[in-house]
# Entry
Amino acid sequence: MKVSELFMPTLKETPSDAEIESHKLMLRSGFMRQLSSGIYVYLPLGYRVLRKIENIVREEMDKSGAQEVHMSALMPKELWEESGRWAVFGPEMFRVKDRNEREYCLGPTHEEAFTYIVRNEISSYRDLPKILYQIQTKFRDERRPRFGVMRCREFTMKDAYSFDVDEKGLDISYKKMYDAYVRIFKRCGLDVKIVEADTGAMGGASSHEFMVPSSVGEAEIAYCKACGYAANLEKAECLDEPIENNEELKEKQEVYTPNVRTIEELVSFLGIDSTRFVKTMIYKADNKFVAVLVRGDREVNETKLKNLLKATDLELASAEDVEKITGAKVGFAGPIGLSINVYADNEVKYLKNFVVGANKTDYHIKNVNLSDFKVTKFADLRNITQDDLCPKCCSQKVTIERGIEVGHIFKLGTKYTQAFNCVYTDEKGEKKLMIMGCYGIGINRTAAAIIEQMHDEDGIIWPITVAPYEVIIVPVNVKDENQNRIAFEIYENLQRNGVEVLIDDRDERAGVKFKDADLIGIPFRVTVGKKISEGKLEIRNRRTKESFEVEIEKAIEVVI
Ligand code: ATP
Ligand code: MG
Ligand code: MG
Ligand code: MG
# Structure
């Protein structure tokens, strides 16, 4: 591409409304323009970067076995009523009416559409598992669109959805997506921190976010340099100081003396949604298995477990015991903290002799009663601060820093398949709910995050994998016939060799062209100047700022 013909409206001045570097640089380099608050259009260079990122995402998704489809952005209200989200999504959802007053939304996400299609088209275990994805425009009426394409109201997301026959299948699909994300962000040249985005009430972390550490990130991450623990600060919790055997404790014991017959009573007894005392949660699948998670502690470590056994007449439960009593495989509903698993058909049959444990084999004990917890675990769960020890290894204080959420993967379970009655028939002819996962990457936000991580005072430093062009050739003086001829020869040669190359054939001062080349961040600059009389030209690396001279004939080889 000739720069003289390129639509690249660069700006000399920094736009006053842009607060962060990526926003400023994307405007200054003529990559994009704002049309309205949180709404942007992409010009040729910017659009090439987005397409490069999309292609990396597409290649890695395809490699993982996911299949690309394309849903509509416009979706009928009825679809969203089926999941109940029409009512709960709130003002972030753009809603529109057609000429007949029928209501629609502009998709902020696509769980409904995917579940609907899979429900209609897949009915047998033989057709599972499936991972489907799309690269699609999303609309969210963000309360505070800001920072350019970092948080906008119309953006491109790669969103994938997995459908499996069981939890084990979901684990496999989830791992595939996790690994694909690691490869994607690596290829984009990004340094990402993978954090738990959910404290794992349903058995280990059921959600991870891919965060680019950056002071302009809107999320906060807590992590431990010693053991690698990392979590979104919104979700990271630790135990408050345990309350010793005092009056307050006694009071609480009384309050928590169980006298419960039904699940409803149990829910109210445990104080679901209460952050006081212990956090609790109920999980229900197939209307059969109910796990009540009393998260009194983060993890049952061996010493704590032994002490608990010594202090009581509790027994260690084998994996088979757990399965027999709870109907759940170890690892299925095991939370990070202690859990009480109650097996019931809509009614709590056994309010004593629970199995409790962590999400690990050999870390369960049986014949536990609610009262056992009261004497051993009494502490509030609260959000972590920088003064807290790592909740996992306790060996040092957590570090807190800001990050940009570029990707998010999530084990959904049966949340949507239940709402849509998305079932399959298993080998025995029984109908079962499919188990889902969902996986998103913000394409535009990823581009902005790359700039945040890689820029200097002169402009953007694109990694070659996502750069709009790989090489820019700058004839210093286009009026010099020799310089021009050699520059174009190299240009055409590189093009023939599949290199994405720009030639700055504008009749401008060399300094202007160098500045622009640096601003738009092309990884290699080939300068064709006076040195051609000695048969030489200069190649400069944008990132290291190193330049070296090469023989004209060798220029192509070196660049390739
Ligand atoms: P955030 O916490 O920043 O609001 P989110 O958790 O709402 O993001 P998800 O629903 O998890 O976002 O969507 C998946 C991905 O889509 C995010 O990880 C992010 O990369 C991208 N994304 C979400 N909202 C926006 C937005 N308003 N503008 C640009 N990209 C976005
Ligand atoms: Mg959001
Ligand atoms: Mg988020
Ligand atoms: Mg998210």
About this structure: The CA atoms of residues 157 and 442 lie 5 Å apart.
